């Protein structure tokens, strides 16, 4: 692999080259992760929509979102009808500053169930759970993490239905002091999210080295998975 190819392979932004039929000819590492959350056809269709009218390269500033990915721009280039390339530009995201291997061992399913049970008391809200069943016991700062979950569920206190999804981020990890840690997410979703809890949730997340991301009807908590 030449230096330029290595540079593209390790680029922070996803890069894909398609043939004329929308089949992927080459892609970098970041694009592989992206295609785990969005279909190849959807990216190919977007490339066609933002390509220049004649051969060449065109960069467009826009707002795109696919799963946990958000982009602020796209460059599309082609010099023949045989292939077309696309590069998407990611918004900068929060990063984990440290990894704290202290904390108390806890069963994440039990912790979530306790927070859901506390939230559901006196409410008619329907709760749905979609949990990856393979999680080991984790080390968490339980008090802070429980407060963050409670703020999260309080944000959806008027929603008729709240869905909680627990999963690992496929292909992603954080390296700290020569160790690699998987990353897991807790996604809570419901209608009519109350934004008044955002600042409190962000403040709590910082104290326990989590990242919390807010969408219109979702709150996503991301954290390193440290086995107990």
Task: Give keywords.
228 residues; alpha+beta; Beta-Lactamase; Heat Shock Protein 90; elongated
Précis, in short:
This is PAS domain-containing protein. The protein contains six helices and twelve strands.
Distance between the termini: 40 Å
Task: Please count the beta strands (DSSP E, at least 2 residues each).
Answer: 12
| Count, helices | 6
Element string (H = helix, E = strand): HEEHHEEEEHEEHEEHEE
Query: What Rg is obtained from the alpha carbons, in whole angstroms?
Result: 20 Å
Share of helix among residues? Answer: 25-40%
Mean pLDDT: 88
Q: Quickly count the domains.
A: 2
CATH superfamily of the largest domain: Histidine kinase-like ATPase, C-terminal domain
Spatial strand sequence of the major β-sheet: 2-1-5-4-3
Largest sheet: 5 strands, antiparallel
- CATH uppermost class of the largest domain: Alpha Beta
Strand content: 35-45%
Unreliable stretches covering 5 or more consecutive residues: none
| CATH 2nd-level architecture of the largest domain | 2-Layer Sandwich
Structural class: alpha+beta
Spell out the blueprint of helices and strands.
Elements: H1 3-9, E1 15-19, E2 24-27, H2 29-34, H3 40-49, E3 56-66, E4 69-78, E5 83-90, E6 104-106, H4 108-120, E7 126-131, E8 138-140, H5 142-154, E9 161-176, E10 179-189, H6 198-207, E11 211-214, E12 218-224
Parallel strand pairs: 7-9
Antiparallel strand pairs: 1-2, 1-5, 3-4, 4-5, 6-8, 9-10, 10-12, 11-12
Helix pairs in contact: 4-5, 5-6
């Amino acid at each position: 692999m030449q230096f330029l190819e290595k540079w593209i392979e390790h680029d922070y932004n996803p890069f894909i080259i398609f043939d004329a039929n929308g089949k992927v000819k080459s892609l970098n590492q970041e694009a592989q992760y992206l295609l785990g959350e969005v279909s190849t056809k959807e990216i190919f269709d977007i490339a066609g929509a933002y390509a220049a009218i004649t051969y060449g390269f065109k960069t467009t500033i826009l707002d795109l979102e696919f799963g946990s990915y958000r982009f602020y721009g796209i460059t599309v280039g082609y010099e023949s009808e045989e292939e077309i390339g696309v590069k998407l530009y990611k918004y900068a995201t929060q990063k984990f500053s440290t990894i704290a291997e202290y904390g108390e061992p806890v069963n994440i399913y039990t912790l979530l169930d306790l927070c859901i049970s506390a939230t559901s008391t006196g409410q008619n809200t329907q709760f749905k759970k979609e949990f990856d069943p393979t999680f080991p016991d984790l080390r968490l700062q339980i008090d802070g993490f429980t407060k963050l979950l409670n703020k999260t569920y309080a944000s959806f206190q008027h929603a008729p239905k709240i869905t909680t999804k627990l999963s690992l981020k496929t292909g992603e990890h954080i390296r700290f002091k020569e160790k690699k840690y998987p990353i897991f997410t807790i996604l809570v979703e419901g209608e009519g999210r109350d934004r008044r809890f955002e600042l409190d949730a962000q403040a709590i997340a910082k104290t326990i080295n989590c990242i919390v991301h807010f969408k219109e009807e979702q709150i996503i908590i991301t954290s390193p998975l440290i086995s107990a």
